[in-house]
Each structure stands twice: as structure tokens, then as C-alpha cells.
Amino acid sequence: MDELLREMEGYAALHHVPIINERGRQAFLQVVQEARPHRVLEIGTAIGYSSLLMAQHGAADIDITTLELSDERIKVAQGYIDRSAYADRIHIMGGDAAENLLKLQMTGQKFDFVFIDAAKGQYVDYFHKIQPMLADKAVILADNVLFRGYVKGDVPTPRRFKTIVKRLREYIELVSQPPYVTEILENGDGLAVTRRLDT
């Protein structure tokens, strides 16, 4: 498995595919190992790297539904997943994430762990759409919430990133309101760990 993951890291570097970076990876794995999730929803498959990390470090009966827009990336991800021990545990849904989240709502499924690593400007929308699908005490992990240091602090935001930064600030505010509590791990590009308090 480690050999497969190293191969994927090489592919991602060569083809400029964003995967969870080395600094963020340890924090990511720590959250997954603490939560030991059974039913995972991932928004943003890319090449399947984080799916395989979650499968390796989650519960023994883990089942992952992962959403990806790009047909090319789905093909690459499926190739890697098929070579792993978790081929029957990871299911890729192709197409627009917002539409697929609405389809998943209709199935009545519940997820105890959600990992968001897709279009940064859509995080608020994704958060609203996953609400009906969260199990009690679900953990929601969102990557890149500090977006190159522009979201927190005094660094001036280039015009082309202003909308993304504004929406990520909205996301952080949203997940910091009761009944949610959020911790931002500043490893990598910022990982928001959101838990629902017992009500």
C-alpha cells in the first residue's frame, strides 16, 4: 500500500494534481485515526489519494463514497483504487458535486465523516447540502481553508482570489456557530476540523 501511495505522490507532482500535502497529511491522518470512520463522504476525489489514506486508517468496515467532476481524474483514481486492497470499499460518483449531493440526500444515507477538498468557492453550499446526511457526532474535515495565507491575517488578497477568500471566511464563520465547534489546524494550507456538539 505504501508503495502505491508513493507512486500516486509522484504522479500528482508530475501532473500538478493537488493532493493533501506532506505538512497537512499528518494532521489529516491524526483526525482520521481518532475518528475511525465507518461511512465516509468525500467531496473531491482527484486521483483517489485521500480516499486510500482514509480507507487505510479508518474503521475495519469503512465504506467511502467519493465525488469527482473530471472524467480523466476518475479514470486515474479508479485505476489506483483497483490496485489497492480497498477496491470494494471506495465508490466514485462522477459529475457535479452539488447535484450528486442532492441525489445522495434522496437515498437517506448517513455519514459519520465528511472530507471536503473540492471547489473552494463552493464549501458553504456543500456544507448546507450535507446537513441532512450527517450522523450523530459526525466529523467534517475541510482542506485548504486558509488558502495560501489570504484567509487569516493581513496579507492583501489578489483580485482573482477575492471571491474564494470571501467564501472561505464565510465557511469558517458558518462552522464556528453552535451546534458546531471548529478547530483550524494550520498545517499545510489549513485544515478545518468541525464537530457537532451534543444537543
Automatic annotation (TrEMBL):
It comes from the Bacteria. Gene3D superfamilies: Vaccinia Virus protein VP39. Keywords: Methyltransferase, S-adenosyl-L-methionine, Transferase. PROSITE patterns: SAM_OMT_I. GO terms for biological process: methylation. CDD domains: AdoMet_MTases. The keyword Methyltransferase applies. GO terms for molecular function: O-methyltransferase activity. This is O-methyltransferase.
